[in-house]
Specification:
five-stranded antiparallel beta sheet, 7 helices, five-stranded parallel beta sheet, about 30% strand, alpha/beta, elongated
């Protein structure tokens, strides 16, 4: 996979270093380097890149201000010499925050997070389109139709997939990997131990998902994302 990227930094030396890093990173395609946000803004709105290395403290328009008006499609790695901006950076959903002087090791570590994000998104799009997946179970590959899944339970290193038919399939797979793969928000993590096929949910009782006689708890860590899903699908 190749990720398109651009650099905005008003310090020529810092921008040049990032350029050299981007050009020697195999999965990055550098589309442009800018020395101020105003010049970059028009290009990036008309032809968005997937990743932007963005300095925070710049004249006329700061990196934080620019980040708020860029397309959501563009993921951001902030670059700055001032650590106090880290919290502000995460408020605009930056993928990472690099403190100058930036080493190539830190650069690669951050860009790998972006690569993992887009690879996960690609898998989700594939499964959403094809509507099935294969999992290893008892030394064989088993095809599971997404529309047949009710929910998934995590059991340490294993998962257990509950199907509409009543069948249960065990597989050596992590919940994190499955969560990154299944299309969202059709499938939502509601608890460290549960991923639920939300289109199959018929009832929610006191913030518990109801499947027949089964009650799956929604933990505090996932209440916000579940509530957002419910708000978008509830008539009041």
């Amino acid at each position: 996979m190749t990720i398109t990227c651009a650099i905005i930094d008003d310090e020529p030396l810092a921008a040049g270093l990032l350029e050299s890093y981007a050009r020697k990173t195999p999965f990055l395609e550098l589309r442009g380097t800018y020395h101020n946000a105003i010049t970059a803004m028009k290009d990036l709105r008309e032809e968005p890149v997937q990743l932007l290395f963005l300095d925070i403290q710049m004249p006329e328009l700061s990196g934080i201000e620019l980040a708020k008006i860029l397309p959501k499609y563009t993921k951001i790695i902030f670059t700055t010499a001032f650590s106090q901006y880290a919290i502000e950076g995460y408020k605009v959903n930056a993928i990472d925050y690099l403190l100058k002087p930036i080493s190539y090791q830190d650069f690669v570590s951050s860009t790998n997070k972006v690569l993992e994000y887009y690879e996960s998104l690609s898998r989700q799009e594939t499964y959403a389109r094809d509507r099935f997946m294969y999992v290893k179970s008892e030394y064989k590959l088993v095809r599971i139709m997404l529309d047949d899944i009710l929910y998934v339970e995590g059991l340490k290193d294993y998962i257990r997939i509950f199907l509409k038919s009543g069948e249960r399939i065990m597989s050596l797979l992590s919940m994190k990997k499955l969560e990154e793969t299944l299309p969202q928000p059709e499938f939502l993590r509601i608890h460290r131990s549960y991923i639920v096929h939300m289109t199959e949910v018929r009832s929610i009782d006191r913030f518990r998902i109801v499947f027949g006689d089964e009650f799956l708890p929604i933990s505090d860590n996932y209440k916000q994302s579940v509530q957002q899903y419910l708000d978008a699908h509830t008539l009041v």
